[in-house]
Design goal:
Structural class: alpha/beta
Helix content: 40-55%
Low-confidence stretches: none
Cofactor: pyridoxal 5'-phosphate
Domain Aminotransferase class I/classII large: 37-387
CATH architecture of the largest domain: 3-Layer(aba) Sandwich
CATH class of the largest domain: Alpha Beta
Pfam families: Aminotran_1_2
Distance between the termini: 51 Å
Number of domains: 2
Enzyme class: transferase
Largest sheet: 7 strands, mixed
Radius of gyration: 21 Å
Strand order of the largest sheet: 2-8-7-6-5-3-4
Keywords: Aminotransferase, Pyridoxal phosphate, Transferase
């Protein structure tokens, strides 16, 4: 095996080199090695991809559809995305010029930020939130500005947003990252709450990148896209990973005004050329004939949510009822005198339950832990038994 030559050991990207890997992945991999552990770390749906969707991918392979697709994605899929967004959320995009199919929503985030950020530009990131926003901004030369939303029930208020913009300098703030339904909190913005944000942003020289990957997984309320309220300044990100349990197919997409999407498409082409054809045809089928496939999954998630939240609060972990996604985000009792990382490590090694420490989701996550209920009810019930026993040991 070759060793890195001494003459190039210091030839590195000085922004990327000191960064660690995703804390979510680090803890998931670490805890997976513990025998008998129940893993509630990753947001990985435990459902299979619907059969008709799998069949579409197989058919693509049988048809020898093995050549490059259009770099922005096959037109049929872009049309399906456009029709889906129109039907589901009453937002409208031209499939020819305003839609780019990406390798998962993660690439859509990278491409969108790359189309905005110049060195020194600031991006506002309410935390706790999806862990990858912060390092992506840094790698691109931007400055992530974390906004701790814990005291506001995990939502960004219009008043707080205005305060931060004033503090950071409106001329330096180029974008706001908004994630809802929220990972890790499950928070969902109402129309009135979104209008607060729109009122602050509408006259400023900044975009909002709205990551709505969990839009199909809301409980008791209909998801309202920010793009419905502010289409000219909203860059909308979504995908098939969560809605149709297609995490391994790696199909996401970004939509927005034509002039912005032109630059997104450039970055996308530089990075990946084009998505995989079988995965694209599967996604087209999912958004054409499988538009209601997520409903049955959502009903099951809701039953799991109701059970786990009741149990967590009963055991002594203050947990708000998630309005969307498939995570709980719980407060670690101060009497334990444990940081989020210390608690997660102790629970994994002694209680045999794997959770993600809240600090993995930014500064606003300290003192909390995330559990994914995208796993079986049997696992959830056993995890709650173990958590209860572990908690009694901590108290004694």
């Amino acid at each position: 095996m070759p060793e890195l030559d001494s003459t190039v050991k210091n030839v590195v990207n000085e922004t990327l080199d000191p960064m660690g890997r995703s804390q979510i992945r680090i803890f998931a991999e670490k805890f997976a090695k513990i025998p008998g552990i129940i893993k509630m770390t990753l947001g990985e749906p435990d459902f299979n991809v619907p059969e008709h969707v799998k069949a579409a991918a197989i058919e693509s392979i049988k048809d020898n559809d093995s050549h490059y697709s259009d770099q922005k994605g096959i037109l049929g899929l872009r049309e399906a995305i456009s029709n889906y967004l129109s039907q589901r959320f009453d937002i409208h995009y031209d499939p020819e010029t305003e839609v780019v199919v990406t390798i998962g929503a993660t690439e859509a985030i990278l491409d969108s930020l790359a189309a905005i950020i110049n060195p020194g530009d600031k991006v506002l990131i309410p935390t706790p939130t999806f862990a990858l926003y912060i390092p992506i901004v840094k790698v691109l030369g931007g400055i992530p500005v974390q906004i701790n939303t814990t005291d506001d029930g995990f939502r960004l208020t219009g008043e707080r947003l205005q305060e931060v913009i004033d503090e950071e300098g409106a001329d330096k703030v180029k974008a706001l990252m908004l994630n809802f339904p929220g990972n890790p909190t499950g928070f969902v913005y109402s129309k009135e709450q979104l209008e607060e944000i729109v009122d602050v942003v509408k006259n400023k020289n900044m975009f909002v990148i709205s990551d709505e990957i969990y839009a199909e997984l809301t409980y008791g309320q209909k998801h309202i896209s920010l793009a419905k309220l502010m289409p000219g300044k909203t860059i909308l990100i979504n995908g098939l990973s969560k809605s149709h349990a297609m995490t391994g197919y790696r199909i996401g997409y970004v939509v927005g005004p034509k002039d912005f999407i032109t630059n997104v498409a450039k970055m996308h082409a530089f990075a990946v050329t084009a998505p995989s054809n079988p995965a694209q045809y599967a996604a087209k089928e999912a958004l054409t004939n499988g538009i209601d496939d997520p409903l049955a999954m959502r009903d099951i998630y809701q039953k799991r949510r109701d059970y786990i939240v009741e149990q967590l609060n009963d055991i002594g972990y203050k947990t708000l009822l998630p309005e969307g996604a498939f995570y709980t985000f719980s407060k670690i009792p101060e009497e334990f005198h444990l940081t989020a990382i210390e608690f997660a490590n102790k629970l994994a090694t002694e209680g045999k339950v794997g959770v993600t420490p809240g600090v993995a989701f930014g500064e606003g996550g300290e003192g909390h832990f995330r559990m994914s209920y995208a796993c079986s009810m049997d696992d959830i019930k056993e995890a709650m038994k173990r958590l209860r026993a572990f908690t009694e040991q901590l108290k004694n």
